[in-house]
Design a protein that fits this description.
Shape: globular
Number of domains: 1
Strand content: 15-25%
Structural class: alpha/beta
Distance between the termini: 29 Å
Helix content: 40-55%
CATH architecture: 3-Layer(aba) Sandwich
């Protein structure tokens, strides 16, 4: 559940502002993530892992890995190696602590890198994943095309992201929680006056459903499948590299 601050994020400065915002809440990120989602985010990650298990990937790239929650879940399908990248140094530090504690630091390697400038050769990975991170790309198409570049032919991408539910009363309840309750709880627990206010706006303006599927296709993916989750408040998108 990648969040940031209530400062208006200028497109040309988004990347640096996102990095600073995540660094500021990294110490409370995992607790807030699970508390504010009532633990549902864990179930969503498990669902993604269940979907990609059939691909039997050997090399996995987890983009916007944060504190490595999804990378840790992906280790359960026993790939040869998982590489997690993120622009927030502090998030990676906490992720590395978790990996050492779980004795996964040899299976999962974390790197401080920008999703739009990946330091990997073409067609390196069998699978790329992104959980709650594509919303924060400075340039969505550039980020998706860069991910496409490093995936092998016929490899896959799996994206877990928030969506806007469209049915009454879920839509209304969702907006009320995101706009009023979540920002206040986030500020109180994280001790960051701006944390968690960026989330509602970013979710409402981000393309979802067919619109995001079209973004994946424009970036060079095909056979996009969408899996709505929990009354449509999140979705998993799975596609194949052309």
């Amino acid at each position: 559940m990648n969040q940031a601050s209530d400062i208006k994020v200028a497109p040309e400065k988004k990347k640096e502002q996102i990095r600073q915002m995540f660094n500021s809440i990294a110490h409370r990120y995992d607790f807030l993530n699970h508390f504010l989602s009532l633990g549902i985010d864990r179930l969503w990650r498990k669902r993604l892992v269940k979907i990609v298990r059939s691909f039997k990937p050997r090399l996995i790239l987890d983009v916007a890995t944060g504190t490595a929650d999804l990378a840790i879940e992906l280790a359960l399908i026993n790939p040869e190696k998982i590489t997690g990248v993120d622009i927030s140094e502090k998030m990676l530090e906490f992720g590395q602590e978790k990996l050492v504690k779980l004795k996964l630091d040899q299976k999962i390697i974390l790197k401080h890198n920008d999703a739009e400038k990946l330091p990997f050769s073409d067609k390196t990975f069998d699978l790329a994943t992104v959980a709650f991170g594509v919303r924060n790309f400075e340039n969505l198409q550039k980020g998706l095309r860069e991910i496409n570049r490093v995936i092998k032919a016929d490899g896959n991408i799996a994206v877990l992201e928030f969506t806007m539910p469209s049915y009454f009363p879920v839509k209304q309840l969702y907006k009320f929680y995101f706009r009023f309750l979540l920002p206040r709880l986030g500020r109180w627990i994280s001790r960051d006056s701006g944390a968690y206010s960026y989330l509602p706006e970013s979710v409402e303006t981000f393309p979802h459903g067919k619109a995001f599927a079209a973004e994946l296709e424009s970036a060079g993916f095909s056979t996009v499948k969408t899996y709505p989750l929990t009354f449509g408040i999140a979705s998993i998108y799975v596609a194949t590299r052309i």
